[in-house]
Amino acid sequence: MDGGIEMRVRYKIPLTIQNGDSLIFSDGYNEFPAADFTFNYTIVNAANKYTFTAVAATPENILGYELDGGDLFVRVAPEDTAKYIAGDDYTYYVQAEDDNGNKITVESGPITLIDEYSTVGDYRSHAKIMLDLLEAYLQGTAPDAVKKYSVAGRSIESYDLKEIVELRNYYKLIFENEVKKNKIARGERDYSSTTKVRFGTMPEFYRGQGK
């Protein structure tokens, strides 16, 4: 690509989309060739809906990108994804439509949209926020506002030390797993095992009370 980013395009829609980034991927369905169908993508939750369309992966359409596979090509501009509202409760749908207007959903699944980081904000995960908050409290460095922070309907200062430590360990485990998954996604080696956070891992007094 002259003057652009040399890029090998991944196959299939990514299940995590960074708002404000270009969304580029290839796709394809053997029983629905790109030459005979139009493919419409919808990302939706209870409050928001975003749509875009794939084009046939011809040399003219793929702009010199190298595709990992498929006969469809999708590119959504960063100024468009910057308008997306972040959330982990979205579902994506891929719908094939023929020249006669017949439509069929060929794929669907959960998808996460992540806040654009070009604006000031707190981009820590929920687990990291809770871990930092609880560790600050244990270290005696938490301001009064943090002590009043509600966890499962109770202020932090209402928990005893044992309960605070159990909560800290619970969120520490979740955050460590997030870090390991991120390393794996980047192709880094991580020889430590990822511990599955089971129901029994959650402090007994905290179960059924929400995050």
User: Ranges with pLDDT <50 over ≥5 residues?
Assistant: none
CATH superfamily of the largest domain, called what?
Answer: Immunoglobulins
According to CATH, what is the topology of the largest domain?
Answer: Immunoglobulin-like
Sheet having the most strands: 5 strands, mixed
Order of helices and strands: EEEEEEHEEHEEHHEEH
Tell me what you see in this structure.
The chain is α+β, with helices and mostly antiparallel strands and 211 residues long. Helices cover 24% and strands 27% of the residues. It is built from five helices and twelve strands. The strands form four sheets. A five-stranded mixed β-sheet has the order 2-10-9-4-5, with no helix packed on it. It has a three-stranded antiparallel β-sheet with strand order 3-8-6. A two-stranded parallel sheet has the order 1-7. The termini are far apart. The relative contact order is 0.13.
